[in-house]
Amino acid sequence: MECMDGPPRHMTTVGGHVIAETSKRVPDLYADPRLLAFISGLVGATALPVPDPVERHVLNILHRRGDTHGAHTDDCPYALVIFLEAPDAPEDGGLLEYVPHASCLRDLTTGQARTAHHQAGDAYLLRSDTTAHRVTPLTRSGLRRTVLNLACTTPDATPHSTPSARHLYT
């Protein structure tokens, strides 16, 4: 992904515009005022839907050995990531690596990165525009890591856009 200094992106993706055409439940969940109120309570600011239909809700699927979602920051301030499938053990890969308050992707290689393993059914909320993050490669065949990412913004967020979402999801 050249627009993010070249980290690898080996995965299957589905953009929000495609999800909206093929699913009623995901767009309904995304627009549910209770979900937005929940996120607002967690972040201490009003969470709003993202205007861009491509980035609102996306699926990221790692399903082959070596699949990875390389180092990046997101265009939107917040990402609620819900695990539909995940490798059982940390040594299987698919781990979230992140450095809070670090937009420099090189910070992920300086020993500052934190690592988190997740199971199917887990979720996390990430300040995704100011946290450098990546997903480690799957270590063997037969594994799957499928996440639904629900992006949110806030009224005071400065609009930020890179070409990466268009490359990944359209």
From TrEMBL:
Pfam family, one: HalD
Superkingdom classification of source: Bacteria
Organism, scientific name: Streptomyces minutiscleroticus
Protein name (Swiss-Prot/TrEMBL): Fe2OG dioxygenase domain-containing protein
